[in-house]
Amino acid sequence: MFLWQYLTLLLLPITVQICKAQICEEFSDLDLSHAIIGTSLRTRLLLYTRDNGTCGTLVSHTDLSAHPRFNSSRPTTFIIHGYRPTGSPPVWMQKFTELLLARADLNVIVVDWNRGAANINYFKAVENTHKAADNLTAFIEMMQRHGASLSSIHMIGVSLGAHISGFVGAKLNGAIGRITALDPAGPQFTGTLPEDRLDPTDAQFVDVLHTDIDSLGFREPLGHIDFYANGGADQPGCPRTILSGGAYFKCDHQRSVLLFFDSFNGTCTSRAYPCTSYKDFLDGDCMSCARFGAAGCPVFGYDVIKWRDVLLTLGQTKTFFTTNTDPPFCRTNYRVEVMIWNEDLRFGYITVKLHSNGKEAVATIDHKASEFKKFTETTLLAQFDKDIQSVKEVSLKFSTGNALKSKYKLRVLRIRLTHLEREERPLCRYDILLQQDKEVSFRPVPCEESNF
Known about the structure:
single chain; 2 domains; 10-stranded mixed β-sheet; glycoprotein; Lipase
């Protein structure tokens, strides 16, 4: 009995140390009562590395040497959330850290400023963004003293977090490497001066995604490159009426995070095209990528840093892309050129389907009625829901959208489909008769050079 007591006393300190080492710090979990009463800002920094990818370590604001897992020679990425009106933790935070660590050996720091963001008074949360930025700036300056390089820092800010990133970047004279802003908050920031919001001078490279410009997001460009997904407003699959409850308010805004997640998957990329407006983009007026050189148009998301150098020479670049309703969100783009034989002018919509080995991709060009004129090439942008590697068959359907009028026929002299993201020979078909609302399928052939 004496021996067991002795061993217990001997092993107790070791057991306590092991328990301490295994403690995982969690993001602050508040509730609506906190938001109603109001919270005072308290910024917590949770460190994740490949050694503790699912177990956060609370980092000291004053003594970085107390955290051996933090390696100053590694790049550091900060994830900064936005407004939390109910006080709940962001449901996407853990996945964010996992995706980042899967891509690179990083120090990932989750910035938990929930006590400060959880407040039904949005204006108070906005006020706290400046205080949170002061706190982060002081921490990064401490990182510098421990050998960290500002150029190796990447700040990813969501909503209000985007502007916090900008404030930090400005305080550090734009020396941090990159700021990624996911649907930066619009209310209280729209119409303000650059020093009162995110702007391109806040980092060496600033990339911005807009998904809710007609409500919670910021409408105008804020970075070296600004991506407008589906025009930057209504996202496919999100509720369109208030009857859907809370999802009506946050779905478009939160889609920015989900789209960024999708960009980590190298098998699915969203190519974005420079354009002055979403209308011109949908009309097929912005399919040129020549300004970006051999790399082509930028790919949205985590890897857009590969276009950094060329984008810095172009100033602010505004780009557009469309997405599917659900993951994988990426679409595949084709230029479709149609020339008809009909004597009379025709207006209508075209649906194109690509088939190969049991797979089918669909693109419906219906944002407006297209004009088809005899011996005049009509150029359309077709955005397919998936990529078909080797097209064996194509289906076409022409419609007018008006079931009450007499049925039209569209006599197609030639249709040509050109993949915008792969260098391959365009596909053609000659002399097709399309009866309104009836699908016609055919085997495409490689296009020939012609004079028409």
